[in-house]
Amino acid sequence: MRTVLIVDDEPQLLRALQVNLQAEGYQVLTALDGATALKHAEGGHPDVIVLDLGLPDINGVDVITRIRRTSSTPIIVLSARHGSVDKVRALDAGADDYVTKPFGLDELLARLRVAGRRSVAPEAPDPGPAVDAGDFEVDLANRKVTRDGAPVRLTPREWAILQLLVKNPGRLITQQQMLAKIWGPGYDNETHYLRVYMGQLRRKLEADPARPRHLLTEAGMGYRFEP
What is the pLDDT of residues 97-122, one digit of tens each? Predict the structure, then answer.
């Protein structure tokens, strides 16, 4: 049985999700505010977190940021905010996915399954050698990244994107290929996810993120890694 933490300040929605997810075999933790969410995220060890951004005490993006300091648990944002700015802020803070209200239960269940598979069965480490890009080094075998000799902390999504690119040096990886490989089916149009995560990777790894040398964009097509 997998554990889901649902964070939402609407009691009726919270109760409805709790009942429906329990019927699907999930163990459910609930929180009406950010403080309770942080407590459950630390002590309840959820496998997936479903988080509303509009909380009464702590901004949802701040909750994501604080969770990400110590945990890589998948976070699905659930919000009535439709603007792309809110999506980008949530993803930039470390969220893995974004579902806009109103939503269908089937859609949420599908996204929970995708997030759950990643938290239980991450891709096995590649036994290949380390890749030295000059500005940074990627150790594929041990899933480690260093820059100027210092370790760089990546989120699971950031690592998945970097690993895919580094394993295919010089090759164009299309947006659709990357979304299908890392997020799974049904995410073909979520290209803004890639812009956010590539921006984060460049800030962490490139000497000049505004003029990247290694993590390159092929406009309208995809991305490429040049050692």
Answer: 888 888 889 989 988 887 776 554 44
Who's near 198: CB < 8 A, 6+ residues apart?
A: 161, 215, 217, 223
Non-local (6+) Cβ contacts of 169 within 8 A are 131, 225, 226, 227
SS3 102: coil
Residue 10: name the closest of 30, 29, 36 by CA: 30
Q: Are strands 144-147 and 136-139 parallel, antiparallel or unpaired?
A: antiparallel
Contact status, residue 141 vs residue 127, Cβ threshold 8 Å: yes
**193-217 per-position pLDDT tens digit:** 899 999 999 999 999 999 999 999 9
pTM value > 0.90: no
At residue 61 the predicted structure's pLDDT band, cuts being 50, 70 and 90, is very high
Tell me which DSSP letter residue 44 carries: S
- The pairing of beta strand 222-225 with beta strand 215-218: antiparallel
Q: Where would I find the beta strands (DSSP E) of 18-143?
A: 27-31, 48-51, 75-79, 97-100, 130-132, 136-139
Q: What single letter denotes the amino acid at residue 66?
A: R
